[in-house]
Design goal:
Number of helices: 10
Shape: globular
Strand content: under 5%
Pfam family, one: Fic
CATH superfamily: Fido-like domain
Number of strands: 0
Number of domains: 1
Structural class: mainly alpha
Order of helices and strands: HHHHHHHHHH
Protein name: Fic family protein
Largest sheet: none
Radius of gyration: 17 Å
InterPro entries: Fido (IPR003812), Fido-like_dom_sf (IPR036597), Fido_containing (IPR040198)
CATH class: Mainly Alpha
Length: 242
């Protein structure tokens, strides 16, 4: 599958720079869908059209303040991801904490960008995240893995594995899922791929693949799920310019 994806990416790269307004409209489409689906996976009840109007600065009646903030915060977090990619900043825990702070600001300021000090459990998952006193050590190990072993992996595999390892540590009280999907797309975008959207209708397959990765150390289902979405995003870009 990677061979086919690499060919499509090569075709896209050969056509760069892409037309300005095509890029702008694709960006707006993907970022709306990314925000809507990532929040919906976590239980946000705003529809995609309601998400769009919240991004335009309009309040939707009958929805909670938290749901509005989740949309605005996710938009700000995406902008931060773009900034990191543009500046070619190295991956770090400081960057992860900044990203999480944006996700949770105004929702839970006490824990925004702060590693948890309590045990948590992942609803519906067999895997149990580590105790709070192990988080710093495991996050240190994540960075070391990223800087060494991970650099030998295909960017799609590296992004998928980064997501899996991070969400397995579950370093924050809340917002780990959204942050993990932002980190996945950060890694893809660093390597010239368009961002992907893990759709809310695929939530069960997504959660099952994650749990299988954590419990059985079998990452193939999750990597293939990510690869499939990468190909879908590449196909979208190629259809817009062909």
């Amino acid at each position: 599958m990677f061979q086919q994806i690499d060919k499509k990416k090569a075709v896209l790269d050969a056509k760069r720079p892409l037309p300005k307004y095509t890029v702008q409209s694709l960006r707006e489409k993907l970022f709306l869908e990314w925000t809507y689906n990532s929040n919906a996976i976590e239980g946000n009840t705003l529809t995609i059209n309601e998400t769009k109007v919240v991004l335009e600065g309009i309040t939707v009646g009958g929805r909670t303040l938290r749901e509005h903030l989740e949309v605005i915060n996710h938009r700000d977090a995406i902008r931060y991801v773009e900034e990191v990619v543009q500046k070619e900043e190295p991956f770090s825990q400081w960057q992860i904490k900044n990203l999480h702070h944006l996700v949770l600001k105004g929702i839970n300021d006490e824990y925004a960008g702060v590693y948890r000090d309590q045990q948590v459990f992942i609803s519906g998952a067999t895997h149990t995240p580590p105790a709070p006193f192990k988080i710093q050590e495991q996050m240190n190990a994540l960075i070391i893995w990223y800087e060494t072993e991970a650099q030998q992996l295909h960017p799609i595999t590296r992004g998928a594995m980064l997501h899996v390892i991070f969400v397995g540590i579950h370093p924050f009280i809340d917002g780990n899922g959204r942050t993990s999907r932002l980190l996945l797309n950060l890694e893809l975008m660093k390597n010239g791929y368009p961002p992907i959207v893990i759709k809310v209708e695929n939530r069960l397959a997504y959660y099952n693949a994650l749990d299988k990765s954590h419990v059985m150390k079998d990452y193939q289902d999750f990597i293939m799920l990510v690869a499939s979405e990468v190909e879908a995003s590449l196909d979208l870009y190629l259809s817009a310019i062909n």
